[in-house]
Specification:
disordered C terminus, disordered N terminus, alpha+beta, two-stranded antiparallel sheet, four-stranded antiparallel sheet
Length: about 170
């Protein structure tokens, strides 16, 4: 049986989580009412293709998360931190889309969604630091180059007008 203190903590966490979701939804609704175009709060994150995902069920795998979030774009990186002892996910993670515009769709459509009786919190990430990877020698290494945006690097000469806005 859970103690009263633990139940109150869970209620407070749940209340805080729902409050954040509610506030983001209010901001989105207000922008729609005002007809805000390019001055959206999303623009602050236009240089990052990463999002934060909280409230994930502990049994969800990286594949499950990709399945849920791929409806808004191609997912190219998923990081679900895990407990070192149990190997279970910690209930949150970071996800990178191939196209940054997918982050706006995911934040607007999945923030507040319920998955396996848990409410997701989905938000932009401005400065995500990619984790270390294990090299061939077994040593942990920092990525050679941090990538916040998934714009691919091109090799060779490609005319800049090929990427001009239409």
């Amino acid at each position: 049986m859970k103690s009263v203190c633990l139940l109150l903590q869970e209620e407070h966490h749940s209340f805080t989580h729902y409050s954040v979701v509610r506030e983001i939804n209010k901001i989105n609704e207000r922008e729609l009412e005002l007809g805000v175009g390019s001055a959206s709060w999303h623009d602050e994150y236009k240089d990052s293709a990463y999002i934060f995902v909280g409230g994930l069920h502990f049994d969800l795998t990286e594949g499950d998360v990709v399945t849920i979030f791929s409806q808004y774009g191609e997912v190219v990186d998923v990081n679900l931190p895990r407990d070192k002892e149990t190997g279970k996910t910690k209930g949150f993670g970071f996800l990178m889309y191939e196209d940054q515009r997918s982050t706006v769709l995911a934040v607007d459509n999945l923030n507040g969604a319920t998955v396996l009786d848990r409410t997701l919190r989905v938000d932009h990430v401005k400065n995500y630091k990619q984790g270390k990877t294990k090299g061939e020698d077994g040593e942990w290494k920092e990525p050679e180059q941090q990538s916040l945006n998934a714009r691919p690097e091109f090799i060779g000469d490609i005319p800049s007008k090929a990427f001009a806005k239409r």
